[in-house]
Amino acid sequence: MQSYRNEPPVLLADLNEYITCKLCKGYLIDAVSITECLHPFCKSCIVKYLNERYDCPSCGILIHQSHPLNYISFDRTLQDIVYKVVPDLRRKEKLLRENFYRMMGKSPPASE
């Protein structure tokens, strides 16, 4: 069996292109993938984008024009990877959401 102990560690900078949204350039939050091409985006970013356009921002493949939101799916595995490799991202995102709800005069959902 081959040993990987001599392999250099993987740096976060080496993973950034795989765990960042091509629209907002930030780390993926509520990661979703377009079902036709599997390119990932933040849910809020791609929903906003699909209000104006019907193509993948990464590869240009056409997404269903009348119901484009039916062609994105939550990518739980990718989101879990992002939270594992980016220290404190989950905690910071939770705090931002809680603050947003408070500013709106509402209580954060229990799952938050």
Automatic annotation (TrEMBL):
SUPFAM superfamilies: RING/U-box
GO molecular function, one term: zinc ion binding
Pfam families named among the record's database cross-references: zf-C3HC4_2
GO-annotated cellular components: PcG protein complex
Main location per the UniProt record: nucleus
Entry's localization field: Nucleus
InterPro entries for this protein: PcG_RING_finger, Znf_RING, Znf_RING/FYVE/PHD, Znf_RING_CS
Domain of life: Eukaryota
Keyword set includes Nucleus: yes
Gene3D superfamilies given in the database record: Zinc/RING finger domain, C3HC4 (zinc finger)
PROSITE patterns documented for this protein: ZF_RING_1 (PS00518), ZF_RING_2 (PS50089)
UniProt domain RING-type: residue ranges: 21-59
Keywords attached to this entry: Metal-binding, Nucleus, Zinc, Zinc-finger
Record's protein name: Polycomb group RING finger protein 3
